[in-house]
Design brief:
2 copies of one chain form a homodimer. With 365 residues, chain A is an alpha/beta fold. Chain A has 2 domains: 3-9 and 249-357, Lyase, Ornithine Decarboxylase, Chain A, domain 1 (Beta Barrel); 15-238, TIM Barrel. In chain A, 33% of the residues lie in helices and 25% in strands. In chain A, the strands form 2 sheets. In chain A, strands 1, 11, 12, 13, 14, 15, 16, 17 and 18 form a 9-stranded mixed β-sheet that branches. In chain A, strands 2, 3, 4, 5, 6, 7, 8, 9 and 10 form a 9-stranded parallel β-sheet that branches. The longest helix of chain A is centred in the middle third of the chain and has 24 residues, at 180-203. The two termini of chain A are 37 Å apart. Chains A and B meet through strand 11, helix 10 and helix 11 of A and strand 11, helix 10 and helix 11 of B.
Chain lengths: 365, 365
């Protein structure tokens, strides 16, 4: 079937672009000598995780245990880092169950998180690999870099059932960059602070294997700081408007689009499509002023979106849009989009080739 | 199990509040003498649709054929209005399949939409009940009220395979109201314009049974205009911060909350929860300045949200928040939230009573 024959709205993935994005990142990181551990929250599709592993990723990153369980159960991923704080007995039990089956590591930023995991792991005769979450300015989770991280490392290093394996950050502050020099500086600083903190931990007499960073815009910059050992980008598999705006990708590097149909053309300058925020999400809509980019149609702007409707502003002198036309929207932020669909449809040269279940969709726990 | 024992994040529904919201709206509309046809896009749960029907709704409204199919297949809803434009052969075939099984009606705002449905219905020996979509200023789909609607009605009235049953609008412009008098005026105007348009259609010699309006904030106002026959509110089952801000509901009228766990307290004025935009969506975040309301905790503000993290700003003088604490978030806009979860958990007096599958979740086609 041709892409144009698909019923809409539907999330489609251009396989050539996807594979190019995957191999490009794998090559870049291999050339620098840094491990790649992509975050699968962007796609939540086991088959895409597999492509990343086949291209050279050493394992994957997940935000939730439920994502990790799906990836382990379906395509048998053997090395997973849960880049999050695991809190509560139910989740600790599931973490230890995973640790019995595969190589697992987990984030930690306090003794309140660490204590119960240490205790439970000890009871089951397990040692859980821990990466301390370092905050470089995003002010989300994490301990500040430098001394506070060293202090926590000392304590975690002594706790039974835990193994201090490394430190990690998400340098999300790079998304605030206004110019490429600014992005470059923020990314380099992130790598430098992580390496500096790792040196302090080692100087205090502890072993530390992993210095891990992660964010698509900074992936190729942060890695070049000697001492960074691992990177965990997610969005690079698909790219999106946010990456285009940062100068990290171009429209033709965006692999996932939402194919939509024009269902109404109420006036010369307005057309309505059958995809709204339940397909595209509202992410970054306010900051970007639109709900996504209409691919290959610079005269059409997705100015408003309701749950099941998108409103296009059209340049009447350019517009030949009519009811039934199909067009593709590049999402502002692609990660919440795959999470809204049951399936992603893979196309190559506009021919439908494969349908993937978004198997980890909705795995919020 | 107690609510507090649930693993998080989880979407919970207070059944007492839900049932009160459902019966209140049913009573109000019955007292006015207007039919209630709730929009199920808010919950997407067949069992909740059933409660609405048992309370007196004459049928349901859906945005998508997929939602209608689920509601027909699970709890056997027999009267469904698809408040949307059905475009494309696949969808027309599914619409006609539904029409063979149950009482179905559909929106229409152009001959481009009407023509193919007319043709296909005629071929299958069916007549599809049509409501013309009227635009009162929202500028989404629809023809302008008054003469343009009458003109389209004349044409549709002559088309084989179609039966002109009524006109409908979504008076979403009421969400722009800054004060209650403003809301009241916008709602009344919406009802008046619809009734005026219906009179013009009848004066032109056509029969017209249904004059349908729909939006939770205006539901009890628009209905009082003599001549309005039906209302299609959706959000009222749960309510949300948007309704609270409009003065339509109070915090204690909000039935759906997201129960979340504090996973990190990095500083005295900041706590991080395990629910982000993949649970709460980004809807109205920019306009409201937060990502939801922390129930019963006025000193905590959900100032930022990432995919799997919510960042609370805390008043340190009031805060006793610690890792492991659970709290409830009332969503800004509840409709995209149920669509993010596989299940809603019903609680009564804080005891878990029922788990409902969000059976129409992700039915975007």
């Amino acid at each position: 079937m041709l892409k144009s024959g698909l019923d809409t709205p539907v999330a489609i993935v251009d396989l050539d672009i996807l594979e190019r994005n995957i191999t490009d990142m794998a090559c870049s990181t291999r050339n620098i000598g840094v491990h790649l551990r992509p975050h699968i929250k962007t796609h939540k599709v086991p088959e895409i995780a597999n492509k990343q592993l086949e291209a050279g990723a050493i394992g994957i990153t997940c935000a939730k245990l439920g994502e990790a369980e799906v990836m382990a159960d379906t395509v048998g991923v053997r090395d997973i880092f849960i880049a999050n704080m695991i809190v509560g007995n139910d989740k600790i039990r599931r973490l230890l169950n995973l640790a019995e089956r595969l190589r697992i590591s987990v984030g930690m930023d306090s003794l309140e998180v660490g204590g119960p995991i240490s205790e439970a792991a000890q009871k089951r005769g397990l040692r859980i690999r821990v990466l301390i979450k370092v905050d470089l300015g995003l002010e989300r989770t994490g301990v500040p870099y430098g001394e506070p991280t060293v202090d926590l490392a000392k304590k975690i290093n002594k706790m039974p059932g835990l193994e201090l394996a490394g430190i990690y950050t998400h340098e999300g502050q790079v998304y605030s960059a206004k110019r490429s020099e600014h992005l470059y500086r923020l990314a380099r600083e992130a790598g430098q602070k992580m390496v500096q903190t790792a040196k302090m931990i080692r100087k205090a007499g502890m072993e530390l294997d992993i210095v891990s960073v992660g964010a698509t815009p900074s992936a190729r910059i942060t890695c070049r700081i000697p001492g960074v050992t691992e990177t965990r980008p997610g969005t690079y598999v698909f790219n999106d408007v946010a990456q285009v705006k940062l100068g990290i990708a171009r429209e033709e590097d965006c692999a996932l689009t939402v194919l939509a149909t024009v269902i109404s053309v109420p006036s010369r300058d307005r057309a309505i499509i059958d995809a709204g925020t339940k397909c595209l999400s509202s992410d970054k809509a306010a900051a970007f002023g639109t709900y996504g980019l209409v691919k290959g149609m610079p005269h059409a702007t997705l100015v408003r979106a309701y749950e099941e409707h998108g409103v296009l502003n059209i340049d009447p002198s350019e517009s030949k849009i009519k009811v039934g036309d199909k067009l593709e929207i590049i999402p502002n932020h692609v990660c919440p989009v795959s999470n809204l669909f049951d399936e992603l449809v893979g196309v190559r040269n506009d021919v439908v080739t494969v349908t993937w279940k978004v198997a980890a969709r909705g795995k919020v726990r």
